[in-house]
Amino acid sequence: MSHSKSQPDLAMANLSADGKPTLKTIARISGLAVPTVSRALNDAPDIGNDTKKLIRKIANDIGYVPNRAGVRLRTGRTNVISLVMSTEHDLMSHTARLIASVASGLRDTPFHLIVTPFFPDQDPMEPVRYIVETGSADAIIMNQIQPNDPRVAYLMERKFPFATHGRTNWSETHSYYDYDNKAFGSLAIKQLAARGRKEIFVIAPPQEHSYAQHMIAGVQETALQHGVNVSIADGATSDSPSADVVAFLRRVLEENPKIDAVVTASTSSAMAAVAAIEQHGAEVGQEIDVFAKEAMPFLKLFRADILTVSEQVNTAGDFLAKAAIQAIRNPDMAPMQGLEVPSDESD
Questions:
Q1: For an engineered disulfide with 97, which of 162, 237, 244, 313 has Cβ 3.0 to 4.6 Å away?
Q2: Closest alpha carbon to 58 in 39, 43, 37, 33
């Protein structure tokens, strides 16, 4: 007589001594062998997707939770991926969405996400060293990447699996996903020049980060081609507190009334730029343009005349999750690498 997936079957299924469902429980319900169940839950490539879905559904229905200590003893893995992030990073930008999208990318895999924060007064190396030395995760995902990032150098030396949201000078050798900020900077200048703007002020990210250097390079190269003047902010960044950006930009506008456009790299700094421009007595989209990128379609609701391009952070998080898993399971494979290029048409 075949077994159905009814409640009586669940009651009859094998349970552990403490009454919790086990791999044998799932095997009894599914009619599959325990090793097959185990491999399906671990996303083995030789198990079909339909079988994996069935096993995961049964596991969810009966409340099966793998014993982490047992998994580690059997495999040497924690089934944990750590997203290491600074606490000072602006949550209105793309950080919250990045966390959600990485978590989504790990859904239906045996891996779980933990977020490991580090504080502004803390050495960014500390959480990375802790994870590696304690073996508290199988891989690390990081952002706010520097060209010669010491965290990346350390992880490559230790051969510890990782993926970066951003590129280093060694990107050809490791997994990453990045937004083409050089193309963004170039696109901003092209579109502003086409609108007749001649004096463009740029509020870039902190210049120790790779993406800031990429953006500035795109801005400066394209400005030369189009015969416009650009100035890079010295005293505020797109990560600065909004009140600081407002006060800083108001002073700049008073000192240089010829500025007719502002380019910035975050939602919060774009909103701060609008506030500064309006407090200066100018109108956005008329006397002064604002050009920005954003992870969520928010700025157009704030001011319809802001020029924007989108950054697909959902794609980034999903890609980074898969890249980290590949780095764990297949360290000898070519690292996964992705680059999002902004559209030539702004919204």
A1: 313
A2: 37
Q: What share of the chain is helix, strand, coil (3-state, %, to 5)?
A: 45, 15, 35
pLDDT at 210: 96
**Average pLDDT in the 299-328 region?**
94
**Listed residue (140, 136, 161) closest to 78, CA to CA:** 136
Among 295, 310, 305, which residue's Cα sits nearest to residue 274? 305
CB 288 within 8 A of CB 278: no
Q: What are the pLDDT digits (tens) for 242-277?
A: 999 999 999 999 999 999 999 999 999 999 999 999
Using CA atoms, how far apart are residues 309 and 293, in angstroms rounded to an integer? 5
Distance of CA 122 to the CA centre of its chain: 21
Query: DSSP per residue over 61-90, as a string?
Result: HHT----HHHHHHHHS---EEEEEEETTS-
Instruction: Report pTM.
Output: 0.80
Q: Are strands 162-165 and 175-179 parallel, antiparallel or unpaired?
A: parallel
Pairing of strands 199-203, 162-165: unpaired
